[in-house]
Amino acid sequence: MFGRATPLRVALPAPSGQVVVGVMTETGRVAVELDGEGFRGPLVVSARGEPHHAAYASFTLPEPATEVELRVGAPGYITFVGHRAAGSAS
Q1: Average per-residue pLDDT for the chain
Q2: 51-62 burial, b if ≥16 CB within 10 A, otherwise e?
Q3: Would you list the domain boundaries of the chain?
Q4: pLDDT grade, residue 71 (50/70/90)?
Q5: Whether residue 3 has pLDDT greater than 70
Q6: Most CB atoms within 10 A, among 2, 23, 26, 57?
Q7: How does DSSP classify residue 2?
Q8: Which residues lie below 8 Å from residue 58, measured CB to CB, with a gap of 6+?
Q9: CA angle centred on 73, ends 8 and 78, rounded to 5°
Q10: Does domain 8-85 have CATH number 2.60.40?
Q11: Residues linked to residue 25 through DSSP beta bridges, in sequence order
Q12: Could you report the per-residue pLDDT of 37-63, keeping only the tens digit for each?
């Protein structure tokens, strides 16, 4: 279980320009923060879904990253972390 005080550090397999995070909480709504080395501060996206089901937050990174740190604004579970390698087609 993760919350605001418990970050999850994720090593991405390649420099990535986009990250998608799946989060499951009791309410279905939660703020997800993503930070990386060289960022000017964390990126924050509100994930919304049904209670007890995964909600997704999509981040476009200011620069490609190989490691990111995730935090969620409420107790819950991070169920998915996906990425798109920098320079790859949509």
Answers
A1: 91
A2: eeebbbbebebe
A3: 8-85
A4: very high
A5: no
A6: 23
A7: B
A8: 18, 19, 20, 45
A9: 40
A10: yes
A11: 76
A12: 889 999 999 999 999 999 999 999 999
Length of the chain: 90
Residue type, 28: G
Minimal CA–CA distance to 25: which of 71, 73, 77? 77
Q: Residue 89 corresponds to which amino acid?
A: A
8 A C-beta contact, residue 5 and residue 33? no
CA 53 – CA 12 distance, rounded (Å): 25
Give per-residue burial for 14-34: e unless 16+ CB within 10 Å, then b: eebbbbebbbbbeebbbebbb
Return d(Cα 32, Cα 14) in angstroms, integer: 22
Q: Residue 13 has what pLDDT?
A: 95
